[in-house]
Amino acid sequence: MSQSAVSEQGNRVSLELDWLEKNIRCQHRCPAHMDIPGYIRLISQGKYLESYKLMLETNPFPTVCGYVCPRPCESKCKRGDFDKPVSIDNLKRFVTDYIYKNKVKIPVPEIKKRDEKVAIIGAGPAGLTAANDLAGMGYQVTVFEKESRVGGMMMWAIPSYRLPRDQIMFDVSNIEARGVEIKLNTHFGSPDKTISGLLEEGYNAVFLAVGAQRGRKLEVPGEEGTEGVMDCLDFLKNVSAGDLKSPGKTVAVIGGGNSAVDAARTAKRITPDVYIVYRRTRNEMPALKHEIEEAELEGIKFHYLVAPVKVIVENGKAKGLECVKMELGEPDSSGRRRPEPIHNSEFVIDTDCIITALSQEADLEFLGDDSGLEATKWGTLVVDDGLQTGKKGVFAGGDVALG
Questions:
Q1: What is the DSSP code (8-state) at residue 352?
Q2: CB 121 within 8 A of CB 127
Q3: DSSP reduced 3-state for 193
Q4: Each residue of 325-339: pLDDT tens digit?
Q5: Is residue 8 pLDDT above 50, yes or no?
Q6: What is the DSSP-derived secondary structure letter of residue 192?
Q7: For the chain, which terminal residue's Cβ has fewer other Cβ atoms within 10 angstroms, N or C?
């Protein structure tokens, strides 16, 4: 088994993943398969620029990862077999902070340009990574983004206290230095902006990387059209855009993932009373453990084994959240014990703001009915092993294809 990585010069480097799994477990566990022993060795030698350049060979966002990576590499660090894992992510952040704060100039690799042009729709992690790799291979790359700023979920969904915005833009600047053109405020879906139109304009390929931008609903009575009920992505995006007005006197966040914790911790900074409502126990929460601990330290209250059944509405506004207590039954398909409602255990949480953070799904409405692209039953785009859709020259990757 092998996987190809794109080096800084655009050359393909074969990574034997089976060999890595046995011999360099941390590098195998890293989703980007960064050369962790290599960049740590360069740090130990004081070669910070060289270490940073090595990171860039397999990951165009080392600065971002230094702040928000969940560190799966450290769980497989061999040092942890008899002591404690090496602080791999902190070492990465040390180097990226050093490069950024000291304004170290990153040399742009010499790349032989090709005639072929590629259009990428979406300037989030997937789109910008594809742009970086394609530009490194010599292609002329243009990225189209509907928002006024690049970064996708990095920019809009991760709170700035966790990921400073200038750190995102530092990584993006390295991608732009390769000749990638980014066009903001460009909306697809109108008659004059279509995928077919891009191919007709002379682009040889189109890569769709629009992510999963739409949050799932609670699907309980009183939810639709009620003031004070909102999706966590909308809430986080508004705050990232500068709207620091308190969403309510008491905020209840529904969910147990990282988005729920991010929404709750963000709300806590502008609202005194914040709850997280989760239908399982703390042990089953998919959010990162240290994020849960920090939320507890910040005074966020948790309602475990509780599920919402109704939004209580008064004059069109949320007044409370009716919930039912749960107990854990047999494991479901995820391996976690299935929550089951306890009869006659309903109670009400007084709240005038309910933020749902259940999961996200792709919004494919911009494609129209005649795009020629097929969607799965989960709402993602159908792609083959090479990420190509059923339409020649059109590819898709990231959350819109992989979920």
A1: S
A2: yes
A3: coil
A4: 999 998 888 788 899
A5: no
A6: T
A7: N
Instruction: Copy the structure tokens of residue 195.
Output: 């995928």
Please answer whether residues 337 and 352 qualify as being in contact, where contact means their C-beta atoms are separated by less than 8 angstroms: no
Outline where 5-124 has alpha helix (H): 17-23, 25-29, 36-44, 48-58, 62-68, 88-101
Structure tokens at 23: 């011999």
Which residue shows structure tokens 């360069």? 42
Q: How far is CA 293 from CA 52, 101, 186, 244, 387, in A?
A: 31, 30, 40, 24, 38
In the numeric block, which tokens belong to residue 275?
Answer: 């709850």
Establish how many alpha carbons lie within 13 A of residue 307's alpha carbon, considering only the half-sphere containing its beta carbon: 16
**Per-residue pLDDT, 12:** 43
Residues 6+ apart with CB under 8 A from 331: 337, 338
Give the C-alpha separation, 247 to 139, whole Å. 45
Checking if the pLDDT of 288 tops 50, the result is yes
pLDDT digits (tens, 9 = 90+) for 230-254: 999 999 999 999 999 999 999 999 9
What is the pLDDT of the chain when averaged over all its residues? 92
Phi, psi (deg, nearest 5) at residue 22: -85, -35
* Position 273, amino acid: D
Q: Which residues pair with 229 in a beta bridge?
A: 354
Please write the tens of the pLDDT for every residue from 66-107.
999 999 999 999 999 999 999 999 999 999 999 999 999 999
Residues 162 and 160: their CA atoms lie apart, in Å, by: 5
